[in-house]
Amino acid sequence: MIDLHGRNINKLRISLTEVCNMACTYCVTSLSDHRRIPDELSADHMLRLVRMLKEHAGIEKVRLTGGEPLLYPNLIQVISGIREMGIGNIGMTTNGQLLAKKTKALVEAGLQHVNLSLDSLEPEKFKRLGRVGKLHKTLEGIEECMKFGLRVKVNMVVVKGENEDEIVKMLEYGVRQGVEIRYLELMAMGPLYKKDDFKLVTMHEILERISTRYTVQPVSAEVDSTSLRYGVTGGYFGIIPNNSAPFCSTCSRLRLTSNGQLIGCLSNPAPLSIRHLLEHSDPQEPLQKLVQKSISYKQDAAFTGSPLVMSRIGG
Ligand code: SAM
Fold first, then answer.
1. Which domains does the chain have, with CATH numbers?
2. Is the distance from CB of 65 to CB of 41 less than 8 angstroms?
3. For the chain, does the N or the C end have fewer beta carbons within 10 angstroms?
4. Atom 2 of ligand 1, nearest CA residue
């Protein structure tokens, strides 16, 4: 579906559940913030909503996220259901804690690419930033994905005074493993919204650090990609410059929450429920109206912050 600024909104990001098995300090204030909401959609209902969005709103690509998508009880059913409805581009964003043992089943169900969140390669720091979780589990998850031929990217949220000293080390790891590292600028969301002490490390600072070790060449990325992409000897990396160079003007995403609400923009969430359309005999027209309204909330210039917690929306 084309929005008022001419953007083709064809990517759907689904937060399957708000539950998570980590509690990253920049995402929530404690693990108990990640509660399972009582009206989480069943897999059948989620799939019916995805089908409607494919048929009546032009959704062509789906990313499963959360909370932690690997904690969603019927994840395999959801992935195979999405594949069966003819959506050929299915990805997942995960912290990887439960990934290693499930990779084979996920690939067989139709998963094609995975973004793994990995903020540190030092066990202590990994624990400090994530509060829960073990570094070796995420690393094993990455290795399994590579073994099964999934396309893998690693997301590192860079936090001033916490992990910016690992920017180069993370790229060296990526080059060694053959995975693309993407550095995420911190976003003023949830607990960080309107916080004075916002520990941002800018794109410029990230590039400066990498340039001390590598010669960096800008390379092209997909038109609607959120990241700026660069080449170095032996590999590539990306930066998602949420603050320094927002990607709003090419944003092609629509978000669906675990209880069936559409969110058109991270800055201006204004959730709109489409759940009631499950009862509708002819949902096309009301759905298209709701999608149009939701994407009309999209900013045309910059992310301006949000009190919403990222795990509600899924990133
Ligand atoms: N549990 C999964 C994971 O950790 O990848 C998926 C959900 S998580 C909310 C999705 C992504 O959002 C992660 O890469 C996480 O690092 C990122 N994220 C959460 N809060 C953020 C913030 N305030 N700024 C930037 N990225 C954030």
1. 11-313 (3.20.20.70)
2. no
3. N
4. 94
